[in-house]
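Quick one: structure for this chain?
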Amino acid sequence: VEAVHLIADGKAPRIPQPKEGATYEGIQKKENAEISWDQPAAALHNWIRGHDKVPGAWATIDGQVVTFYGSSLLDASVPAGQELAIKGASRPGLVTKNGLVVFGNDGKMVLVRNLQFEDGKMIPASKYFSADETTTLELTEEEKKMAEDIR
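Got it. Here's what it folds into:
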C-alpha cells in the first residue's frame, strides 16, 4: 500500500535498471541474421533455428538472398544430391530429396527443409532446382464442361 501511495504522490524513487546482467535481447534485424559458415554444424543449426521464423537466417545463393527455415542436424552418411554453391561456405550444399544439406566446418551436416527467396516465394529446399519449372493444368473435356457449368 505504501508503494502505491508513493507512486500516486509522485514520490516513488526512480532507479534506472543497470545494463549489466540484463537478459533481454533487442529485436533482431534481417541484416544481422546472415549465416556465418565458419562454425560447426550444431552452431549452424542453432543459428538457423534461432532465427526461424523472424527475421530468418539467410545466405547468398546465385546472387540473391535466400532465407533458410526448418533445420535439423543430420547424423548419417552424406546423401546423394545436386551441388549448390553458397557464398561464404567452404563446401557446396547438396539439394537432396529431403531438403538442402549444408556442412559445418567440422564436416557434420545440417538439413534445411524450406527456402524463401527475396520476392517472398517459399519452396521446399528439395525443389530448389525445379523451382523455375512451370506446369500447366490440362483439363479433360468432361472437366471443361464441369468448369463451364460452375461458371
